[in-house]
From TrEMBL:
Molecular functions (GO terms): DNA-binding transcription factor activity; sequence-specific DNA binding
UniProt KW Protein biosynthesis keyword: no
Top-level taxon in the UniProt lineage: Bacteria
Family statement drawn from the similarity comment of this UniProt entry: Belongs to the LysR transcriptional regulatory family.
Protein's UniProt keywords contain Transcription: yes
Protein species of origin: Agrobacterium tumefaciens
GO biological process: DNA-templated transcription
One protein family per Pfam: HTH_1
Sequence ranges assigned to domain HTH lysR-type in this UniProt record: 24-81
Protein name, entry field: LysR family transcriptional regulator
Keyword field: DNA-binding, Transcription, Transcription regulation
């Protein structure tokens, strides 16, 4: 007996499974998923930043593609049909998977970031000149420096990984990592000192009332009377010059030859080295405040913060050894 296998007759209507080339538009699928999750076209429109009419149009495109309705309205309430209920869970999971895959890829390729707060003058005159050694040592870390102004700044209002500030008191909620102590000196340009014969003769200060430039800070070391007393210079000043609320402006006025002022050594060290500024009399006096790196307990554990702290301390040790 001979057995023959005969192929079944071709059907008049062939059922074709979806393929990537035959999928409905992604915008239509997304509109359906968001509308189904909110049970509202208007809330879906708000989330996707389109009009309600656009959501309705995308849903109709999907319904036309599938050949069956996905939503129905009953007493003004938007409900899923049986087809919509069957379609929603799988599509929602698919979008979550897509979002997760994209997020993982973006995070894996994103550069780690380090945001640092610093007082404006310190950032410009101490931190910025050291970026040439700090940035390469941080590797792929994207460093961002944001300036703050004033000594009594509420650091809790800033979203940063750490802050470098001069403070003499503990700030609640922060870990204080000490960096270095600072001093304050009376400085001016060599030309100003020569013009007013200030070298070794502080008594000439009595005639410089208008040119006795002053800062404005919480540290008493920056008051002329306190500084002169600390230097054991028995001199009473009958008048003093203008007061500057920012060290940046004070230092610029001194560099411009407008007077002699009390400035932080850390902010004028380069000018003292290259001779643009001199300290004609007296001696450096310690400030009450000390520079610290402040960070919250959770961000202290960030490797970027630990690296920055180590780099700063290494640089400071080198400076102190060379002094």
């Amino acid at each position: 007996m001979r057995t023959e296998f005969v192929a079944p007759a071709a059907s008049r209507a062939t059922f074709r499974l979806p393929t990537l080339s035959r999928l409905p538009p992604l915008t239509a699928l997304r509109a359906f998923v968001v509308a189904a999750r909110h049970a509202s076209f208007s809330r879906a429109a708000e989330e996707l930043h389109v009009s309600t009419a656009a959501i309705g149009q995308q849903v109709r495109i999907l319904e036309t593609h599938l050949g069956q309705p996905l939503f129905s309205r009953q007493r003004g309430e938007l409900l899923l049909t049986d087809a919509g209920s069957a379609l929603y869970p799988g599509l929602a999971d698919a979008f979550e998977t897509m979002i997760g895959s994209l997020s993982d890829l973006m995070v894996s390729h994103a550069r780690p970031q380090l945001k640092v707060l610093a007082e404006g003058c310190f950032a410009a005159r101490w931190l910025a000149p050291r970026l040439g050694s700090i940035v390469p040592a941080l590797g792929d870390v994207e460093l961002s420096i944001e300036s703050i102004e004033g000594e009594a700044v509420d650091l809790t209002h800033f979203d940063a990984d750490c802050a470098i500030v001069a403070t003499h008191a503990q700030i609640p909620g922060f870990i204080h990592e000490p960096l270095f102590a600072d001093t304050v000196s009376a400085v001016c340009t060599p030309e100003f000192a020569a013009r007013h014969e200030l070298a070794g003769a502080p008594t000439q200060l009595r005639d410089l009332g208008f040119a006795m430039l002053r800062g404005n800070g919480l540290d008493a070391a920056f008051e002329w009377a306190n500084w002169l007393r600390a230097c054991r210079i028995p001199l009473r000043l009958s008048a003093t010059g203008p007061r500057f609320s920012r060290q940046t402006a004070l230092i610029e006025a001194i560099l411009s030859g407008h007077g002699i002022g009390l400035a932080r050594h850390s902010l004028i060290s380069e000018e003292l080295k290259n001779g643009r500024l001199i300290a004609p009399f007296g001696s450096p006096q310690p400030t009450a405040s000390r520079y610290h790196l402040l960070t919250s307990p959770d961000r202290r554990r960030l490797p970027e913060v630990a690296s920055l702290l180590a780099l700063l301390r290494e640089d400071i040790r080198s400076l102190e050894a060379a002094a």
